[in-house]
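assembly run, all chains below
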Amino acid sequence: MEAKPTRNEARDKIISTACDLFYRQGYLATGINQITSEAGVAKNTFYYYFPSKDALCVTYLQEIGKHWRRLLEDKIDEYKTPYDRLLAPIEFIKQWNHKNNYRGCPFLNIASEITDPDTDIRREVIYNRNVLRKIIGELFERLKNSDDKYSDIDVPTLTDKYYLIIEGAITACQNYGQDWPFETARSSVEENLLTVR
Amino acid sequence: MEAKPTRNEARDKIISTACDLFYRQGYLATGINQITSEAGVAKNTFYYYFPSKDALCVTYLQEIGKHWRRLLEDKIDEYKTPYDRLLAPIEFIKQWNHKNNYRGCPFLNIASEITDPDTDIRREVIYNRNVLRKIIGELFERLKNSDDKYSDIDVPTLTDKYYLIIEGAITACQNYGQDWPFETARSSVEENLLTVR
Amino acid sequence: MEAKPTRNEARDKIISTACDLFYRQGYLATGINQITSEAGVAKNTFYYYFPSKDALCVTYLQEIGKHWRRLLEDKIDEYKTPYDRLLAPIEFIKQWNHKNNYRGCPFLNIASEITDPDTDIRREVIYNRNVLRKIIGELFERLKNSDDKYSDIDVPTLTDKYYLIIEGAITACQNYGQDWPFETARSSVEENLLTVR
Amino acid sequence: MEAKPTRNEARDKIISTACDLFYRQGYLATGINQITSEAGVAKNTFYYYFPSKDALCVTYLQEIGKHWRRLLEDKIDEYKTPYDRLLAPIEFIKQWNHKNNYRGCPFLNIASEITDPDTDIRREVIYNRNVLRKIIGELFERLKNSDDKYSDIDVPTLTDKYYLIIEGAITACQNYGQDWPFETARSSVEENLLTVR
DNA sequence: CATGAATGAGGGTTCATTCAT
DNA sequence: GATGAATGAACCCTCATTCAT
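ok done. output:
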């Protein structure tokens, strides 16, 4: 006998379609009509699974956030030394943007569209950023513990600085449609944050 | 005889209203109806002066860009030494965001909404960023020429690094609704970019 | 030269169509789509003239209220003696209902649909009822002053009693789809309110 | 062994929820979604028990009709003399409206929403009104037989007149959101219908 | 210069209902 | 008996834009 057919096929299709459209076109520029028609489901099938467009947006951010984190951690694990691993996030986000036509960060873009900070959508953005900062902090921590040369670094401070540089690179890359901001970011980290005097 | 009445009073009102609304609510979330009604002009008065909403957006970015640049240069001129002047942009943008409820940068926000890079709107964003980078470059240049201590700095590289840090601080400040990213940015510039070894 | 062409032709058509449909089908059962399509105007022409469906409803009640009052007063003026004039409202409303397929009173029907009493719609209903009661009161007053036989009647009390009987006749006529409640109402007024002991 | 669990628990919950919502919000303004969700049953559980929303409405009217009749007869039985019993309906309906925020009569309200007289819903309304009139007729009959003073009254005529006054009071009370119409109704009955000359 | 009037297309959301299981 | 899933049609309303005057 067959295993149960995939549950929530329609729901999954809605989410994946939304992930694509929200990221490529923006949240406000994408209508429910387009999502459902491209997902191949009736409009009300959408409202069966989601109470509102905003709720779908939250789900979209959660889904893309999980995906993004998995890819980021995979990329980090491609490297062995704590030093290389620390630089992996820059490499990862560079490649992400390159692949996605320099569309920038799904979370930052949404935050530009949804101006009210007191919303679940905006809270999801902050959550994602905290994840990123936590990962960076752990990478610094491991570097500090692995090499006497870095035993004196101030991890929280470096984490914040690194985080700012990444945010800046994402934004600059998106605006210029070029990769160089990530090269600059890497130089900045290597030469200015990690060079012990 | 009377002096000619102020020309383009209606046009000016439209622009100033748009500046306010586009920045506070976002571009897509702001309709022509709201702009004209809040500006107190007829809807067709708008279409007399602007061929489209997009065209108004370009004008909006130009106007706010000029305004922004003037304020930035004024802030720089508040400081005397090249060193302090170099840090002025961070201070200025910090205050701007603080005053504007952490709404972030008008240009970056628009770029998140308008996904097509091949538009006048997006080109206006790039122009503004080039202005910022040029100003930063000049500030570095002057620092280099004014103090032997900095005579060896690589201005273009430092400019890009500084620029990234500012972009990152703007974004982080917007997302967290807090001022600390600008303090971090300042530390990053002072301790990591300007500390000669 | 021609007189200015009729202004607001579209608006008038919308109102007259709404008057018809709201009365015949009910307020909630009538959609904007149907109104505009039957009025032969674009949907947005409606929103050019009215901020909302509720606002149209208020206008509808005002228009039908004016019309209704004019017809009522015309009917009253068909009669000469104060006694006959006093009975005219019953006659008028009976004929109105007969002509309108016993659809009842536009105002009372709306009040059954719009449950929130704190709305402009409901206030319009009350206004109409106050008009009716005022007219009845004046008819009683005139009867009292015209005939010694009625010199002792208590006008306000009789007005309220008369008003209740009319409301009841309207409702009963609507439910049964028959004219007899108005005959009963007339008997009630003649035999029980106007028969001096 | 356990007694059989209460049959049709879900059905009962649907009906009681509908009774509440249809009366408070109106029939058209209340959706199946709201009913099922507030009743805590699946939407299709509704369609298992009722073929349509209209059918539920009929059941609603029957249920509230039975309830209403029971309460009315209880109120009548609170009084001993035929005279007092005759006035009990007015008192009862006054209290009903007072308790229910002057929402008026469930039957009359429905009849305002459902314009087609040739429906089960509308027939249910008529049935309820016939019940009311029959009860009033019986009260008059008993009064007539119990007291020589009233031995000559014309019961059918008085019944219709009484009935109209009650309908009017219900409507007036609903529109004005006040109790006075029932006081007026009582006066009307006592002073004008029951005062033998 | 400026306005009132009008528009087609689409916004997000809810309607009562039905299907297969 | 009861459920999860899905639907087409319609809801009220707003979008950016254009016409004639």
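Chain D touches chain C through 48 residues (CB under 8 Å).

Residues 66 and 128 of chain D are 9 Å apart (CA to CA).

not gonna interpret more than that til we talk
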